[in-house]
From TrEMBL:
Residues in KIB1-4 beta-propeller domain copies: 86-329
Signal peptide (from-to): none
Protein name: KIB1-4 beta-propeller domain-containing protein
Source organism of the structure: Urochloa decumbens
Pfam families assigned to the protein according to its UniProt record, in alphabetical order: Beta-prop_KIB1-4
InterPro entries: F-box-like_dom_sf, KIB1-4_b-propeller
Length: 371
């Protein structure tokens, strides 16, 4: 009997194999093998990651509220997928492929985590007031995940709360509070977040039987960053973010375009006096790129996500002038690629801003939400 070549594999088998692939790149590669494989498989309905847009009148001190998910490219196509849980029209978080949804954007009484692909829902106690929810890991794959909530403290401050699966209620993480939290990342049981005054707060949850994390405040990180500028005049910063990338913690420093290097990445060195130094600059992230903005930051590999470019910093910016809403900083060339503000959103009666990045846990397949 003649051997059967790869190009003659049954279509049903190819569909079964394709359905088990977990990266956008793998789906692209299997689709490109030959005409028969191309006819038997399908590309993702939309490449990841996406941007969650919210109303411009909002800030990090109140929930996102009304929201839409959009592709981070010219035109910013709106993504429609599945139906969120009934009675939860407002968003307050976009971590790990999950949406944190509430029943009211000002005085919420119910809070649910929703994973769109599996339609999984996890109900959490609802702290009120509530501004944002962040997840340390994916609840479907991790047994040690936890959630952090932020609450308004005073007029311009925030405090953080902790909830672990099985807890009856939220517990205080850092009652002293900070200014408005700008961005957050998780690495090896620690949460690192930066407020709008560029203070870094490190919360260590590796405390054994003690449920309270150990929190360290590093004041005025801005002065440390300003020392990096060797120009004749000081260039104002556009933003500072911490990002976990390939098992390491990185600091992203963004400058306005007048600076010769609009984006710089450093490896922080933690000192014994609770300070941090930035000496080693990272010029090449390999296949990775960093995604920063409001909310949770993360890194993705261009090998697994073919819609992104390697060695870049993707920045979801607040479009004060409504000209650009996404900036892509190419670290190798110091070139800044700007993505225009979507015309569709310009025509809305109230402007939208890109609040945070979002990527589904798995590729979005065309038939995933079919009945």
């Amino acid at each position: 009997m003649a051997a059967v070549g790869w190009s003659s594999l049954p279509a049903d088998l190819l569909k079964e194999i394709s359905g088990r692939l977990s990266s956008d790149a793998d789906l692209l590669h299997i689709h490109q093998v030959c005409p028969h494989w191309r006819a038997s498989t399908s590309l993702p309905s939309a490449w990841r990651p996406w941007v969650l847009a919210g109303r411009a009148r909002r800030s990090g001190l109140v929930p996102i509220g009304d929201y839409s998910l959009r592709l981070p490219r010219r035109g910013a196509q709106r993504m429609e997928f599945g139906a969120p849980p009934a009675g939860f029209p407002y968003c307050c978080g976009t971590s790990r492929g999950w949406l944190a949804l509430v029943d009211d954007d000002r005085s919420p009484t119910r809070l649910v985590l929703w994973e769109p692909l599996s339609n999984t829902e996890i109900s959490l106690p609802c702290p009120s007031p509530l501004t944002r929810i962040f997840l340390s890991d994916d609840p479907l794959t991790s047994s040690s995940w936890f959630a952090i909530a932020t609450q308004l403290k005073g007029r311009i401050g925030q405090r953080t709360l902790l909830w672990r699966p099985g807890d009856a209620d939220w517990s205080m993480t850092y009652e002293r509070g900070t200014y408005e939290i700008d961005s957050i990342t998780f690495l090896e049981g620690k949460a690192y977040y930066i407020d709008v005054e560029n203070n870094i707060i490190v919360c260590d949850f590796n405390t054994g039987t003690d449920p309270s994390p150990k929190c360290t405040w590093i004041y005025d990180f801005c002065s440390i960053v300003n020392k990096l500028c060797k120009c004749d005049r000081l260039h104002p910063m556009r933003g500072v973010h911490v990002v976990a990338c390939n098992g390491e913690l990185l600091v992203v420093v963004l400058h306005w375009e007048s600076h010769p290097s609009p984006a710089e990445v450093y490896k922080p060195e933690w000192m014994l006096d609770l300070q941090v130094e930035l000496h080693e600059r990272v010029m090449d992230l390999g296949d990775y790129s960093l995604f920063v903005g409001l909310g949770e930051t993360f890194s993705l590999s261009a090998k697994e996500f073919p819609s992104i470019k390697r060695n870049c910093v993707y920045y979801a910016d607040k479009p004060y002038n409504q000209e650009y809403w996404i900036s892509v900083f190419h670290l190798g060339s110091d070139v800044v690629e700007e993505i225009p503000y979507p015309e569709e959103l310009k025509q809305d009666t109230t402007d939208w801003i890109p609040y945070s990045w979002f990527y589904l846990r798995e590729p979005l397949r065309s038939n995933v939400f079919e009945a």
